[in-house]
């Protein structure tokens, strides 16, 4: 704002300066001329103009009255009305002009009277020669020229004008002293040459005796001369006039040419008039009466006067040229000034525009600031939304987790239901009960399938579900799946056919997933088709693209168009009669087919049936590398532990291992779920001693106390988890050798890794087949037995040839036992107690660990170690048997001999004798 104020001030100053310059020009000088028709007046005007040119501020306005007093009065009034700054008047006649000049003067306009006068003293200043004086000068000159005698004709100027009157008076006074000089006649010339020329001859004719013509100005004298020129009398006449004007038609030239005898200089005073006007207007001191000098010009001085006049003329012309140049310079200056004004104005405009631009920039910056703030607000809002979305994701995740955990929870009870049902089906029960049991089993399996589908969903949602495709004959695969339904079709009298013209077609697909999809579609078809209906499973090469079409068609209940449109939506519940499993199964099927880059669709009409179509692409180009696996039969293994899709595990052909085993091994079962614990205990007790613990902490105590042969523990338990228990057990010398089997509902690879890291020997996911668990438990115990056999075959611990190297802690334990025994081997009191004391363990723990690892007690180990060392001494030293017996810690040589004999089937003395005999023979 301050900047704009400065610009405004600058502009004001600028225009003020311009207007100041203009004010200098505003002086108007009005000049009323009686006539502009003669050379003298023209010379006067020219002089004034020349002088004005030095004062450009003066505007000189000239009005020509053309010898009319009335006209002149009119002009002066106009100047008064115009409020000119100064008025110059040369009155045509004194009388008529006086009032209007007084009027101007009284109106406050400075008035300069020039040449001729008024009858009043109401004027500011006067410029002109003294006409009486020059008249008198002329009279005296003429008297001398005529030698005091002669007749004169006087040619008058305008009679009402003061110069005419004054010159006449002066002339009369000039010739006063010469009585023989007479004015014999008068010619009214009215200052005009032509009038004098016209009127002179008449007067002259009447006065032939005339010697001299006295005219009030040179022009009238020349007029008179010219009027009688041809008569021959002109040359004898003398002519005298006034003005003495320079130039070709001026009085000087006429004197030079001999036409006039003399002229009296009457200066125009143009220069003086302007100088005086300037002084008056600028309030400078000035003279009121400015009388111009005069002189006579005749044959004696005319030449020099001419030269002077010419010089003056030359100077005037030079001045004019200078003036012209000055005018040009002024014009140039004016142009440049105008240009400067334009430039200055442009500069001002630029500055103003710059200021405006600056202001706009400032405004823009502020707008930008506001925009940035707005942007920040939007970013904050977006972050908030992102945060909310994150929270929503978290909530959703928690929901899904909860959902999955609930599903997990279903698995244990389902396992518990299936277990006894399995048992019941194996036992000798009535046909009716068997039927019931089969129904229970079918529904439990169905429930398990549903739970599994829910788990699969979670995997799909978490993007953890991966395609594991391999090339396989799809025709055969479809037929295999279909065969599971043949019995049901037969039972319900449903016409169920697999239709295909293909004998074999290799397609890359994930058998596990496609099995689930087909199983689901067929289950639905059977569910919604009445007994006696028709179901067709068709496989064909696609007509439209490079792929295979598999369709399942039934003539059952069908779907409405709305139901069909939402058939693959997750949990769509448009129709309350459609079960959750159907909806979930179809939604999951769609995900599975999508994983194959295939399509699944349905066409259906209510009460007429439905046709589901699957389209799978051929080849493997559409699959990623990690989605293709080699057909190693892995899929079969993969399917084996799962209860639901492995029908054979529940087939009626199943016979449990009834072989009674001796209960030589103890299993610790840590499980918080009482039902599952009892279920497992009941079955395990058939072959093992079972110790149970309902919680992790009890489990740990039992483990240290009983040192079992194997531990089965649940993972998810209140208090200590199965993983923590495993870790503690595996890091404790007392229990590190015990195989641990973990049971869990969670089957992600991460959890399996976690289980392995804790040191667990096996990780079984729920729901599990009891038979599978039993087999794995037996396997682990057998493995342990093999280890034991290996250790026990050698007295010393040699780990190099073990079938599976013992765990680090077990090796440490055995080394420590060996070291204690080696060190104290001579001490007969070395026994299980002292060793346990040295190892910082209880006697029972050491006993059980030794028994578990080597299969015999600590005391047996000590005796074996003593005997082994004795044998070594017998072979490699010269000591006698008694000495050796004591050295290896036997309390008496007799006891040593008995023990040695029972171990090596030979007495020490015999062993020694045999050794000596061998040495001798060698
Ligand atoms: C010019 C003139 C001069 C003369 C003067 C008198 O108009 O006639 O010749 O001297 O006027 O006013």
Characterize the structure shown.
The chain is 55% helix and 15% strand. With 922 residues, it is α/β, with parallel strands linked by helices. Among the domains are: 131-266 and 295-300, Rossmann fold (3-Layer(aba) Sandwich); 466-648, 2-Layer Sandwich (Heat Shock Protein 90), CATH 3.30.565.10; 666-791, Response regulator (Rossmann fold, 3-Layer(aba) Sandwich); 795-921, Arc Repressor Mutant, subunit A (Orthogonal Bundle). A 6-stranded parallel beta sheet has the order 2-1-3-4-5-11, sandwiched between helices. The protein has a 6-stranded mixed beta sheet with strand order 7-6-8-9-10-12, with helices on both faces. A 5-stranded mixed beta sheet has the order 14-16-17-19-18. Helix 4 (94-106) links the parallel strand 3 (86-89) and strand 4. The radius of gyration is 75 Å and the shape is rod-shaped. The two termini are 127 Å apart. Residues 573-581, 632-662 and 794-805 have low confidence and may be disordered. Residues 35, 38, 40-41, 115-116, 157, 161, 163, 191, 217, 219, 242-243, 266 line the site of beta-D-fructofuranose (FRU).
The fold-level CATH name of the domain at 466-648 is Heat Shock Protein 90
Count of DSSP-assigned helices: 29
Runs in which pLDDT lies below 50 for 5 or more consecutive residues are: 573-581, 632-662, 794-805
Bound molecules: beta-D-fructofuranose
Main beta sheet: strand number and arrangement?
6 strands, parallel
- Our measurement of the CA-to-CA distance between the termini, rounded to an integer number of angstroms, reads 127 Å
**Strand portion:** 5-15%
Shape: rod-shaped
- Assign the structural class, choosing from mainly alpha, mainly beta, alpha/beta, alpha+beta, or little secondary structure: alpha/beta
For the record, the CATH class of the domain at 466-648 is: Alpha Beta
CATH superfamily of the domain at 466-648: Histidine kinase-like ATPase, C-terminal domain
Helix content class: 40-55%
Strand order, sheet with most strands: 2-1-3-4-5-11
């Amino acid at each position: 704002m301050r900047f704009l104020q400065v610009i405004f001030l600058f502009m004001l100053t600028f225009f003020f300066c311009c207007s100041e310059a203009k004010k200098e020009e505003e002086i108007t000088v009005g000049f009323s001329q009686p006539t502009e028709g003669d050379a003298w007046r023209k010379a006067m005007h020219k002089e004034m103009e020349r002088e004005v040119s030095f004062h450009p501020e003066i505007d000189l306005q000239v009005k020509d009255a053309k010898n009319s007093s009335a006209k002149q009065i009119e002009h002066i009034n106009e100047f008064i009305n115009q409020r000119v700054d100064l008025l110059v008047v040369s009155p045509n006649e004194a009388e008529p002009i006086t009032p209007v000049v007084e009027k101007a003067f009284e109106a406050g306009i400075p008035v300069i009277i020039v040449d001729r006068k008024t009858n009043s003293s109401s004027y500011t200043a006067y410029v002109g020669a003294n006409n009486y004086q020059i008249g008198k000068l002329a009279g005296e000159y003429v008297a001398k020229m005529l030698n005091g005698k002669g007749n004169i004709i006087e040619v008058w100027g305008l009679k009402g004008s003061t110069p005419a009157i004054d010159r006449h008076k002066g002339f009369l006074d000039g010739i006063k002293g010469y009585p023989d000089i007479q004015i014999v006649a008068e010619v009214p010339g009215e200052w005009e040459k032509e009038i004098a020329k016209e009127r002179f001859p008449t007067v002259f004719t009447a006065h032939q005796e005339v010697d001299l013509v006295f005219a009030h100005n040179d022009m009238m004298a020349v007029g008179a001369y010219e009027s009688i020129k041809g008569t021959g009398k002109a040359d004898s006449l003398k002519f005298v006039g006034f003005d003495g004007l320079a130039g070709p038609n001026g009085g000087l030239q006429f004197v030079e040419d001999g036409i006039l005898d003399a002229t009296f200089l009457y200066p125009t005073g143009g220069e003086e008039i302007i100088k005086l006007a300037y002084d008056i207007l600028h309030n400078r001191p000035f003279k009121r009466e400015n009388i111009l000098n005069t002189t006579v010009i005749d044959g004696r001085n005319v030449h020099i006067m001419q030269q002077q006049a010419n010089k003056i003329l030359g100077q005037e012309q030079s001045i004019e040229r200078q003036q012209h140049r000055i005018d040009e310079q002024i014009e140039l200056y004016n142009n440049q000034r105008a240009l400067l004004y334009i430039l200055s104005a442009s500069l001002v405009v630029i500055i103003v525009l710059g200021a405006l631009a600056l202001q706009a920039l400032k405004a823009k910056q502020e707008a930008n600031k506001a925009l940035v703030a707005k942007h920040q607000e939007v970013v904050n809002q977006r972050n908030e939304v992102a945060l909310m979305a994150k929270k929503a994701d978290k909530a959703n995740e928690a929901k899904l987790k909860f959902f999955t955990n609930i599903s997990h929870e279903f698995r244990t009870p389902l396992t518990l239901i299936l277990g006894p049902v399995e048992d019941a089906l194996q036992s000798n029960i009535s046909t009716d009960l068997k039927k019931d049991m089969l129904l229970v089993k079918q529904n439990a399996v169905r429930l398990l399938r549903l739970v599994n589908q829910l788990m699969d969903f979670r995997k799909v949602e978490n993007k953890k579900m991966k395609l594991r495709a391999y090339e396989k004959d799809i025709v055969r695969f479809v037929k295999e799946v279909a065969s599971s339904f043949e019995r049901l079709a037969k039972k319900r009298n449903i016409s169920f056919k697999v239709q295909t013209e293909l004998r074999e077609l290799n397609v890359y697909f994930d058998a596990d997933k496609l099995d689930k999809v087909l199983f689901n579609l067929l289950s639905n078809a059977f569910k919604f088709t009445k007994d006696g209906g028709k179901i067709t499973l068709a496989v064909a090469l696609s007509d439209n693209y490079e792929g295979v079409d598999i369709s399942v068609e039934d003539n059952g209940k069908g779907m409405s168009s709305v139901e069909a449109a939402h058939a693959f939506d997750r949990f769509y519940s448009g129709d309350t009669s459609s079960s959750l499993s159907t909806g979930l199964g179809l939604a999951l099927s769609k995900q599975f087919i999508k994983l194959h880059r295939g399509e699944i669709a349905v066409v259906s009409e209510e009460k007429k049936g439905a046709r589901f179509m699957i389209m799978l692409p051929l080849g493997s180009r559409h699959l990623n590398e990690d989605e293709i696996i080699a057909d190693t039969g892995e899929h079969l293994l993969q399917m084996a532990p799962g209860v639901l899709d492995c029908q054979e595990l529940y087939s009626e052909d199943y016979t449990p291992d009834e072989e009674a085993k001796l209960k030589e091994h103890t299993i610790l079962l840590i499980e918080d779920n009482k039902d599952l614990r009892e279920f497992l205990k009941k079955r395990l007790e058939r072959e093992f001693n079972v110790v149970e613990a309902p919680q992790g902490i009890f489990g740990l105590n039992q483990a240290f106390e009983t040192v079992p042969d194997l531990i089965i523990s649940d993972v998810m338990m209140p208090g200590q988890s199965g993983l923590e228990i495993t870790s503690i057990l595996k890091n404790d010398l007392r229990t590190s050798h015990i195989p641990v089997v973990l049971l869990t509902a969670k089957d992600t690879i991460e959890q399996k890794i976690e289980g392995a890291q804790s040191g667990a020997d096996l990780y079984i996911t729920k729901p599990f087949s009891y038979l599978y668990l039993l087999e794995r438990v037996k396997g682990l115990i057998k493995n342990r037995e093999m280890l034991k056999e290996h250790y026990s075959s050698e007295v010393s611990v040699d780990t190099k040839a073990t079938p599976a190297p013992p765990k680090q802690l077990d090796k440490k334990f055995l080394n420590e036992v060996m070291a204690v025994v080696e060190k104290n081997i001579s001490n007969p009191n070395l026994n299980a107690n002292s060793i346990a004391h040295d190892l910082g363990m209880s006697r029972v723990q050491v006993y059980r660990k030794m028994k578990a690892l080597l299969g015999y007690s600590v005391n047996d180990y000590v005796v074996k170690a003593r005997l082994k060392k004795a044998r070594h001494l017998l072979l490699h030293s010269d000591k006698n048997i008694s000495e050796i017996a004591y050295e290896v810690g036997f309390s008496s040589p007799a006891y040593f001999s008995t023990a040695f004999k029972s171990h090596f089937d030979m007495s020490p003395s015999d062993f020694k004798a045999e050794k000596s005999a061998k040495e001798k023979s060698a």
